[in-house]
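Collaboration report, partner site 2.

Our partner group contributed sequences for two proteins of shared interest, and the home lab folded both. The records are reproduced in the order in which they were received, starting with the first partner submission.
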Amino acid sequence: MLMTAKIESFVMHCGEMGSRWGFNRTVGQMYGLLIIHEQALSAMQISEALNISRGNVSMGIKELQSWRLVQVHHKPKDRKEYYSPAGTIWEMATRVFEERRKREVDPTLSLLRDNLLDEPANEQELFAQEKMHEIHDLLETITHWAGELQSMSPDKLNTLMKLGAGVSKVIDMKDKFIKKG
């Protein structure tokens, strides 16, 4: 399978972004390739398109499945498995965020909670715990806010995102109104 220059550029960029999302470059390339293909692809097609081994494709598919980002398809009278993105782009973004929360934020919150339960032994630990408490509260707030965002429909979320800085202006107006009242 040959890729056009535009498709190859996108796929390679997804590889670079993959490392920022929490998986390796090859897995990112595989996902990018799957996203932009209308039809599900076999492991052999992925291998040929990206010039990587079938074993590498197999490991990458397992990684994408652990993130719940791909689904497996079977075609009648064909023993091969075919892969496609699991859901919409919005659902993909939600899953990546949710998995990153599980892998990064949740363990940090657990560590912070454990450290905050202990009594500080000295002033240095007291100061450290105050900062840990600030980090804990920030992560809790972000996690709660993200959970609320994830429960919104894509249309509502898209509308909220388009509001952008307008939301800040409304809050500023509310604050001015309260000060005058």
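Second partner submission, folded after the first:
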Amino acid sequence: MVTKVQPIDEVKDPVQQNSTELNNPQMPLIIGGLIVGAILMIYLMVTQNIVQPLLLVIGLLLGYTLFHARFGFTSAFRRLMSVGNGKALRSHMLMLAVAVTLFAPILAFGYSFFGGDVAGYVAPVGVSLFVGAFMFGIGMQLGGGCASGTLYAVGGGRTVMFVTLLFFIIGSTIGAYHLPFWTQELPAFEPISLATSTGLGYGGAWILSIALFGLISWLTLVVEKKKKAPKMASVPSTTGWKRLLRGSWPLFAAAIALAVLNAITLMTRGAPWGVTSAFALWGSKVAQFLGNDVASWGYWQSANAAVLESSIFMDSTTVLNLGVILGAFLASAAGGLFKFTKINSKNVAAAVIGGLMLGYGARLAFGCNIGAYFGGIASFSLHGYIWGILALAGTFVALYLRPLFGLSVPKSKDSFC
């Protein structure tokens, strides 16, 4: 029996599986999504500063891009570790190459649209990072998606991903509660930047980064040739100018778009794109509402204290996340692909366990595939590279766990998305 892998981060629904063409646009859903987006935009414009409405638009574009290109991280890692197909990982390298090229002058000169401070994601390297990234690697293969993949899968209607998201939030909240132990009681080095900690400067760090991306891309080609990796199957698409609105987009186009949008995010809010800090915030607010003394947690001390006491709509990561979900929803409806999918006890169990590991791992590792891997490497942080290696190791372990939950593992003879 031939098992086919789902597309990126397993968001493909039955309509997508059985057709290589898009359906008619789901106009009632599109109109409803636009109304919701307009209401949220007006609310943010009235109650928040100009940054929040702009971030909602950026998030919407991120979600639209992710869905139309089926661009993800979970399946890219799984494809490489299972059958040796590195096409998606090479798109990561292109994305990162464009990102470091844009981030370097922004970080070096402090460019910002609104004159505030600009800082990348540079985090410590220690036990917390190693354990958290490894857990995240397992979690995303069981939960069916990474951080960005979970958001856009929810926007696309994949029902089980609502379960993953719920337990992602719970795991992130528990991780926030436990974080002081992992960061203060266990060994760790200070944050290491390839630009500022090594004497290379941003120019030298950029050259080194481009060389590393080229080396990794070459290694994936070597692995593909050695394993005779199957090619990626096509996904539902259209032609002409309609492809811009209805998809699917080439991976290389999405890689460039995501890098540009991340740089715009950096210049808009002073920090790169992130996802999971909002999950810790949402869960902590619920815990606080239920009577827990969340403000006493080490995670919510100092600078974070004001975030906990403020409206979630003041949190820029929350606004970005809402935009990603809405953008993916509009993209799926534009392609006529939005449809809630069936779930069963096994994939719910995988979603629960995977979601908990995703959330907890993200907190320990100072971020997820977006904040630590994408944002960290784009910010020239060593921890971003280590995150990627450990997440790949977690993916390898998860290949042996997925069948226990009825989840497929690609075979060398398969043609897959």
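Feedback sent to the partner group on the second submission included the following. The chain has 17 helices and two strands. The two ends are 17 Å apart (CA to CA).
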